[in-house]
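Contributing new records

If you add data, match the layout below exactly. Sequence lines come first and carry their own label; structure lines follow with theirs. Keep one chain per record. Anything else will be rejected by the validation script.
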Amino acid sequence: MTIWQTPQILTTCDADCQMGLRLLAKMAERPEQPLLGWTNVSVALAFILFDVGLSTVFRLGLGVSLVVASGRCMGQLTVVATLLHEVFENRNPSAVALIAFVFNFLGTFEIVINKSSRRFQNMFPYILASMLCSTIPISILGAHFSMGIRPFWEPIQYIPVIGMLCGSAISGVVVTINFLLTELQDNKDKIEIILAFGGTRREAVRPVVTQALRLALTAPINNMSVLGIISIPGMMTGAILGGASVQQAARLQMIIMFMIAASTTLASVFSAFAMVAVILDREHRVRSDRVYEHRGCWFSLDSWKRVPRRLSTHVKTAYDRLSTTAKEQDATVGERQGLLQNMA
């Protein structure tokens, strides 16, 4: 029995006071969360090593991808935790706005540079505008009206929300852009036939855009369908571990999922319209010259996967050159010695 449950205190309080004391007693009975250190992270890293082993056994070729992704995860979360600690302490709205912009900027960078094998003209500013116009309004309206945060930019609540919205919007935009670029390149003849018979660019690409948006929204729909029955999401789990009641955590997760669905839809729609406006101009022509292949950048996952192969190729080439040069020198020396012997 805790101090809040003693009969002397309970008998001297009214009904509301007793309810509050019982709530405090329940909170006091909850076990404290253990402090996690790098040792705990190292132990959990064994799961990744297990996956690497399976990839090696079945020859999946995902070992390097798993290691690089794990390293990025650890490094990025460490940096973000350090920055967010300072922002949470200072409660500066300018810092919150900057972090929200950085989240969208880095998300756009991930879409354009690392996730897209093809790109279209002015892709980066269009995707950035689509991300900002979808995540920022939804996060502000949801935080202020649905979640009841006052002020809405409270760092400890707003920043995790904008982060989740950006992450979901990235997935939707990647699916939309990649599908549209593939269809507009592979089925260019069908679109040009519709345009040749007097159809507008909207009529020509409407089936393709519709299918792309359906694919982009499949993930949010599936997540909402299985939520609570098959899986317990991370936001709800974190709220429960943080001390919130189960009912409050469930309602918070409902709000977050509805916001995620809205932001993913807006980002996918904006990016699809922007891409169609670039590839199909005002003259209702398909501008294939505005689409080009993209090989990625030096810090993308695919580039890191090719590093060992490139190094081995360069080493082998250098070794072959040295061997060829040595053989040529030996042949030249042998010819000279033969000529000298003949002259003697």
